[in-house]
Design brief:
Elements lengths: L1 H25 L12 H12 L9 H12 L2 H14 L2 H12 L2 H12 L2 H9 L1 H22 L3 H17 L1 H21 L5 H24 L28 E3 L2 E3 L4 H27 L27 H18 L11 H7 L2 H15 L7 H14 L14 H9 L9 E3 L3 H11 L3 E2 L10 E6 H4 L4 H9 L9 E2 L8 E5 H10 L2 H9 L4
Parallel strand pairs: 3-4, 3-5
Antiparallel strand pairs: 1-2, 5-7, 6-7
Helix pairs in contact: 1-4, 1-6, 2-3, 2-4, 3-4, 4-7, 5-6, 5-8, 5-15, 6-15, 6-16, 7-8, 8-9, 8-10, 9-10, 10-13, 12-13, 12-15, 13-15, 17-18, 20-21
Length: 524
């Protein structure tokens, strides 16, 4: 009676503590934080005002955030939803961890690792939809494990609805759930003898049909749902230079560690895998021993030890274990490419806390004998982790909105010509400008006709005292050109609007190296 109540109270307390920490990080500025900070308020404003999203994206995360925006405003609501839904990962992490670890204490350890992770906090600030998607993904995985352990109509319906929800929330969430839930379901069906004859053919047909439907939906909505277009991300997944510290992101002048969740994950996964294999070998050796030790029924059996055969795992748990361990090991590999902020390697590394937390629960079950897996002891370990693993008020690599840049974006109002798309090489500024001006924006210029575009250049792209910086100043003195207009309060080219004819004139006057860089139009 008291054990489930105590576990539930611990999970709620953990989520509340994490919510407070996340809100402290998000409330340091009145402006949105993160590289896509203004993207979320734009989407929420459009959803509340028009019932649709301003930009194509996986939709469910924004519908989950909409009530928070309706109660406050789009900027505050986006921050509040990010904090609440990010901290809520404690619940499904506990539920999945308890199933994989075989006890409530293992679930609490998994919840503590997932909730207090620096990577999880980073998602709350930088990639909100990704963070919400992982919460939904773990909830879907828990429902899938429940349904495969004891199938029933309501459980199967709930699991399928959760899988669809993960699919509609974030692409990575969908991929993680499918990678673990499908083997778990197949393992459970095989253990019950259901995958034979006609049923095997029906199962294969159902999987193929579901895959075809998913691919068709992805082809129609490639920016919203998981599609074959995302397979191209695999080409740049690995690098030739190993980085043994497993950083989440590599900058030209340093590395972003994010608490080394990937290193913890690969160590826990290797320990768990080694223990599982070793115990299975010992169990097979004991089963085939032609001269088992004699036993006396009058004596009580010895207590369990590390050499005892492993307990029988539920088929879904056994089938889900290896995908999780393999995912943790793959994310922790030193050859994962993490130099591209938009690359798949970086996105996997910031989600490393998920397989790390679940691998911890698996390791607890695999390494500790049942007699030593005491919920009270493991709960104390979870409490210690929650106290020690505090992300801090400011995260490394966090993108903070500068008030001067906000003032420059606000000053643009009324200066953007009608039917003109602003080509902005930095996503953070692009969404900021779209929020304040309502003007159409694009990151790349190729799809916008030349007579309908203008360049909006931040100083980061221009680079102070560069040839481009000097030519922008020179263009203001050329009477035959529409002049560049600077809006930044602290620098004439801090944020400058350049009409396309003026941009072409400037390009022709630049040195070859600088011209090549500007024509390539590097984006962030």
């Amino acid at each position: 009676m008291w054990a489930p109540v105590g576990a539930a109270a611990a999970v709620v307390a953990l989520a509340a503590w994490s919510l407070w920490q996340r809100w402290q990080m998000l409330s340091v500025s009145p402006f949105p934080l993160g590289v896509d900070g203004y993207f979320y308020p734009i989407q929420l404003r459009s959803l509340l005002d028009h019932g649709s999203l301003a930009y194509p994206a996986s939709p469910l995360a924004f519908y989950l955030m909409a009530p928070f925006a309706a109660l406050t405003d789009p900027i505050t609501g986006a921050k509040l939803a990010s904090a609440v839904l990010g901290a809520a990962i404690a619940g499904p992490a506990y539920a999945v961890g308890a199933r994989l670890g075989g006890c409530r204490g293992a679930g609490l350890v998994a919840a503590a690792l997932a909730t207090t992770s620096v990577g999880s906090a980073y998602l709350t600030v930088e990639f909100v939809k990704n963070g919400i998607g992982l919460t939904v993904a773990l909830a879907a995985l828990w429902l899938a494990l429940r349904a495969t352990e004891r199938p029933g109509r309501l459980r199967i319906a709930a699991a399928l609805a959760a899988l669809v929800a993960a699919y509609a929330t974030h692409k990575m969430a969908a991929a993680i759930v499918l990678a673990v839930a499908v083997p778990a379901a197949l393992g459970a069906a095989a253990a019950r003898g259901a995958l034979r004859g006609r049923r095997l053919l029906l199962a294969i047909g159902a999987l193929v049909a579901a895959g075809v439907v998913a691919l068709a939906l992805g082809a129609v909505f490639p920016q919203r749902l998981l599609s074959t277009d995302d397979a191209q991300l695999l080409r740049g997944l690995f690098a030739t230079t190993p980085r043994w510290t497993a950083p989440a992101l590599v900058f030209p002048d340093g590395e972003l560690a994010l608490g080394h969740d990937a290193l913890a994950g690969i160590v826990l996964a290797v320990i768990a895998a080694w223990a599982i294999v070793l115990r299975r070998r010992r169990a097979r050796a004991a089963a085939t021993d032609p001269h088992p030790a004699a036993t006396d029924a009058r004596h009580t059996p010895p207590p369990p030890s590390a050499d005892a055969p492993p307990e029988a795992l539920p088929a879904p748990v056994a089938a889900a274990t290896w995908p999780i361990l393999l995912l943790a090991i793959a994310i922790g590999l030193p050859f994962l490419a993490v130099a591209d902020r938009q690359g798949l390697g970086f996105r996997l590394r910031i989600a490393a806390f998920i397989p790390a937390a679940l691998s911890a629960a698996i390791a607890i079950r695999a390494v500790l004998p049942r007699a030593l897996r005491r919920d009270r002891v493991l709960a104390a370990v979870a409490f210690a982790l929650a106290v020690i693993r505090q992300p801090g008020a400011v995260l490394d690599g966090e993108v903070v909105t500068h008030p001067a840049l906000v003032a420059a974006a606000q000053a643009l109002v009324g200066h953007v010509p009608a039917d003109t798309t602003l080509i902005i090489p930095e996503r953070h500024i692009a969404f900021m400008v779209a929020w304040y001006t309502g003007a159409p924006i694009a990151i790349r210029p190729e799809r916008i006709p030349g007579d309908r575009r203008a360049r909006l250049l931040p100083l980061h792209f221009i680079r102070a005292d560069s040839a481009l910086d000097r030519e922008l100043l020179a263009a203001r003195a050329e009477p035959s050109l529409p002049p560049p207009i600077g809006f930044h309060p602290r620098h004439p080219n801090g944020l400058v609007l350049v009409p396309e004819p003026t941009w072409e004139w400037i390009l022709a006057r630049l040195p070859a190296t600088e011209r090549a860089r500007c024509v390539a139009w590097p984006t962030i």
